[in-house]
Amino acid sequence: MSYKFVFLPPSGERTRYLAEAMTTAVPDLEVVHCESREQALSALTDARACFGTLDPELLAAAAKLEWLAAPAAGPAKGFYFPELIASNVIATNFRGIFNDHISAHIMAFVLAFSRGMHMYFRDQFEGHWRPGGESSPATHLPESTALIIGVGGIGAETARQCKNWGMKTIGIDPRIKEAPTSVDELLGPDALDKLLPQADFVILTAPQTPNTEGLFTSAKFEQMQDSAYFINIGRGSNVRLADLDQALREGQIAGAALDVFETEPLPEGHPLWTAPNFLMTPHIAAAGPYLEDRRRELLVKNCQRLAKGEALLNVVDKENWF
Predict the structure, then answer these.
(1) C-alpha–C-alpha distance, residues 311 and 321, integer Å
(2) Whether 72 contacts 256, CB under 8 Å
(3) Do 142 and 110 form a contact (C-beta atoms < 8 A)?
(4) Please, are residues 152 and 173 in contact by the beta-carbon 8 Å criterion?
């Protein structure tokens, strides 16, 4: 069935790469690349689908719109605005395409902490030789518990990798009701406070939602073991940086690693730059090959499904932004 698909501005090389595959898979598909807001307002009037970021005015112009393809797995706050949430437009995202890359990044942090690399790296940069030997601090992973908050694609793959190192895995998720294969125990968000004291590694992979913003504050860090490590690769808004800095400096936790931050870039002079036992990377956990191919494949499949009247993949709970 023929229909119009609109790429909202800005258009460019990436959208044309996607469109080529879409029109090959759905020959009758009409694709419009919009270079301006005015062009988008006009093109949306009879479009059934679009890719990009809407706002109330654009949505109001799109009287026939059925499907919005979000350009990211977790778009910025405000992407799912009230009128879009209340509408019948189905939103999809690109969750799932980063599972292998991000879980590998998480395990790099886990392994670094387990072998004390967070201390030895700093020693190296400061030209300091730390006395070593068999009694050096180390965490034995087969006797460790990973508490993974969010066991969707990334969390489930992280659990699988943790199991490869012999770790016990406990998952927390508000939507998944059946534990993935590598999750030993699955509970809902209400169990978080009870589980925090049991974990050697607390791994936060949760997206930004109304319920996860500011989830980790001093109250949560105080419940963790002082020998435990905290890792966040979900969304920066889920962790209050000032509270994390305090927890590190007061020894409430043994260490922390972040790839995402409440404020990005991390401001010059922020105390976390000098916090003890702290590792950071600049929002690069998703880096890796094949991402554009995976985006294209998912978008093409959904174009075909809309043409056939089939259910779309990666549908978003708009009210919860993911």
Answers:
(1) 19
(2) no
(3) no
(4) yes
What whole-number distance in Å separates Cα of residue 202 and Cα of residue 57? 42
**pLDDT one-digit tens code per residue, 175-214:** 999 999 999 999 999 999 999 999 999 999 999 999 999 9
**Looking at this protein, which amino acid is placed at residue 15?**
T
Q: Tell me, what's the pLDDT at 2?
A: 84
Domain architecture of the chain: domains with CATH: 4-96+289-320 (3.40.50.720), 99-280 (3.40.50.720)
Beta bridge partners of 203: 148, 231
Give the neighbor-by-neighbor strand order of the sheet with 255-258. Answer: 185-187, 168-172, 145-149, 201-204, 229-232, 255-258, 278-280
Distance of CA 130 to the CA centre of its chain: 36
Report the amino acid identity of residue 247.
A
Tokens of 7: 């790429």
Query: In angstroms, how far apart are the furthest CA atoms of the chain?
Result: 71
For residue range 210-230, list pLDDT tens digits in order. 999 999 999 999 999 999 999
pLDDT digits (tens, 9 = 90+) for 271-322: 999 999 999 999 999 999 999 999 999 999 999 999 999 999 999 999 999 9
